[in-house]
Fold these 2 entries.
Entry 1:
Amino acid sequence: MNNDQKRYWQSYYRTHRDPGANTAFSQFCLDKFLSGCGSLLEIGCGNGRDAVFFAANGLDVTALDQIGEEIDYLNRTRATDKLRFIEADISEPLNVGSFDCIYMRFSLHSVSAGVQERFLSGLNGHLNEGGLYLVEARSVKDDMYSAGVQISKNENITDHYRRYIDKEELASTLKNLGHRIIYQTESRGLAKYGDEDPVVIRIASQKAQNCRA
Ligand SMILES: C[S@@+](CC[C@H](N)C(=O)[O-])C[C@H]1O[C@@H](n2cnc3c(N)ncnc32)[C@H](O)[C@@H]1O
């Protein structure tokens, strides 16, 4: 499954190499949560559109993705002393520093529930105390939920693999890591793309002092 998914993104970025406009979620996070934030790690940065935006707005940004060709391209064309791209697979242990914020947009639904559980827990050790997880992902209420080939209750394959996220389950996972949920919503209108207006969830959680890492 992961190899097919990886091939899909490899092929996608061959024709979408350059960062386009940043997403609505990145602007929302910048306005609402990131004023006191110095460093940010982006998980599944794709062609770097949000990473470039955060760095342009003064954050020190490390952005990772599994697609090495795209990461090499972004390092050649977009890296600065405040912005670096690394090739990494979040299903493996990550070798990164520590951050005030870990940002994940439309990347959680690229991995299985088991991988999500492991990497959210592992990454918690790379989040400074009081640091934030900021997540946007397709909800289980998304119209695409029942499209394509179902491979489990919340997983399907259309042109590529997706797992749809249950907001309450994710909030509960984050609370079990010692996080406080500081914002959550589930709605259409947040991530419009062409004719698509998927139901997405947004969750912001904060790592407490002395919590389990
Ligand atoms: C839907 S795209 C989102 C890209 C970007 N966050 C955006 O909003 O434009 C999902 C991204 O997650 C990356 N991804 C999927 N599985 C991954 C994994 N196991 N490790 C690292 N990146 C992964 C894909 O390569 C892809 O770039």
Note: The pocket of S-adenosylmethionine is lined by residues 9, 23, 44-46, 49, 65-67, 89-91, 105-107, 110-111 (CB under 6 Å).
Entry 2:
Amino acid sequence: MTIKNRKLEHIAICKNYDIEKNETLLGDIKLLHNAVPEINKNSIDTETTFLDKKIDFPFIIPAITGGHPDLIEINKRLAKAAEEIKIGIGVGSQRAAIENPELEKSLKIVKEKAPNALKIANLGAPQLSKGYGVKEAKKAIEMIDADSLAIHLNFLQEAIQLEGDTEAKDVLGTIKKIKNKIKEPVIVKETGQGITRETAKKLKKTNIDAIDVSGIGGTSWPLVEKIRANNENIQRKKKLGDLFSSWGIPTAASIIEANIGPQIMASGGIRNGIDIAKSVVLGADCTGAATPLLEPATEDLESLKNKIKLFKEEFRLAMFLTGSKNIKQLKNTQFVLKGRLKNWTTQRNIEINR
Ligand SMILES: Cc1cc2nc3c(=O)[nH]c(=O)nc-3n(C[C@H](O)[C@H](O)[C@H](O)COP(=O)(O)O)c2cc1C
């Protein structure tokens, strides 16, 4: 299967199958209700800065689609929504378009339709192990006129994928080289397995600017690859996908773990505005949701914008009910931890960095 067709298969599976793990642990943080907020809900300031760029609220469209002629329309809608709502947009892996310039057109649409939005280019760590470096990073950035570069870590997915790359060689060294040679900020992201404090410390040493924890709780790549393996009837891969579907760090725990300096983005199971507010309280500077945007993005621009605006409205209400006039106040709002998240922080001896 070619990389470009694999992308279409991933999107179809995420849209049509139950591939969510529902284990973010965001249910284990309770924000405290402020019965007398003493603020006007309509004058709450949701604006924030992520990767050196202002965004309307702490949410961006994370990496989803890549280069493929059939994806032009979706990429166009995602870009327009990001531009009009004034949030950010990450593109999916640009490997296919780097290897086959005919595919660039479907990604270049992003810079055309979102000239002012925060745009994030994307390369995968497995490719860094195979020789990708500064040249490819610059090419990916230039292709969409990106403000920033994301490097994704997806070794579990690769291991379960029928045609995956499982060589993880000098990834940190190459990230450091890229960071030193490009002027744009660099974000390193997981793809659904989360980041521990130990990994965050190693990443911090490479001087990167942000970490997207992308923890367990939303799209599960082991389950997606299991379905692909199922389609091709490969039982061994199917079993691996099942066995490892809960492998990793739940998103809420990972926000706390990774918050040691670089900006933090929370993705992996962010499904409404309360999840966004809770993530910010736990230490995130920004959030993102991928699978929930697939359905509206395939419908039309209005449906996509409505979905994102709903996230914003829910987030604003959570700010109102915690008496937070702006993001700084929300970050300092009171909360209670319970259950597995409380156990996690106790056993790991990690405090929330506020
Ligand atoms: C269809 C699809 C394709 C994705 N492709 C990429 C990718 O190419 N590069 C990347 O860094 N992340 C990719 N992701 C991961 C997302 O950016 C995100 O980290 C992850 O899906 C968790 O968020 P969610 O639970 O809201 O879906 C993809 C996600 C989806 C649903």
Note: The pocket of flavin mononucleotide is lined by residues 10-11, 14, 62-64, 66, 92-93, 122, 150, 152, 189, 191-192, 214, 218-219, 267-270, 289-291 (CB under 6 Å).
